[in-house]
Amino acid sequence: MPTDAAAQLDTLYTPPHPVTVAKCLDHVDPHGRRFIALSPFAALATVGSNGTVDVSPRGGGPGFIRVSEDGKSLLMPDRPGNNRLDSLRNIADGSGEVGLMFMIPGVDDIYRVNGPAELVVDDALAATFAEFGKVPKSLLRITVREAYLHCPKALMRADLWGDSHRVDRSELPTLTEMVADQIGVALRAKTHAEEVEGLRETL
């Protein structure tokens, strides 16, 4: 990237609207609290010790991520996954900075939260986050530095909740088939329905 890249950006784009700048808050307000309470999905971005970035999907029942009474922090349970622990290791070993992007099915608006995170291991607190018959082993506490509603244009362009770009699952090989091809190892063949059923048992 050229050293004058930032200056080039300023010549390509007009300054943001004052409202776009002013809407960034240092806490989750009542509108953000309601948005998070309705959201069953968030994308979590973390930064590793070497500066590399990882983005991981997070899901649960609506409101699976909780907002503190003062709106200054969030608590997010860690659900069973593949045990790579990329996000958790980035937080433990890296800067701790995270970015969250909340989405609600059927709603094109997005809610974003940025700030430092820390791992919390508290059995009693974790028990209050039990879902799918499981208690999380750890939680993330995110201190809110920035919280704001995001323009819906990206989801509108994607028609994410509509049918114009909807693809039948049969258009792709099964997950097992794709991974087997990628790593060059023969894995037991499963239908997509079998994969889904197996995953449901480990939610």
TrEMBL record:
Q: Which Pfam families match?
A: PNPOx_N
Q: Which residues form the Pyridoxamine 5'-phosphate oxidase N-terminal domain?
A: 31-151
Q: What is this protein called?
A: Pyridoxamine 5'-phosphate oxidase family protein
Provide the species name.
Answer: Phenylobacterium kunshanense
Q: Which domain of life is it from?
A: Bacteria
| Phylogenetic placement of the source organism | Bacteria, Pseudomonadati, Pseudomonadota, Alphaproteobacteria, Caulobacterales
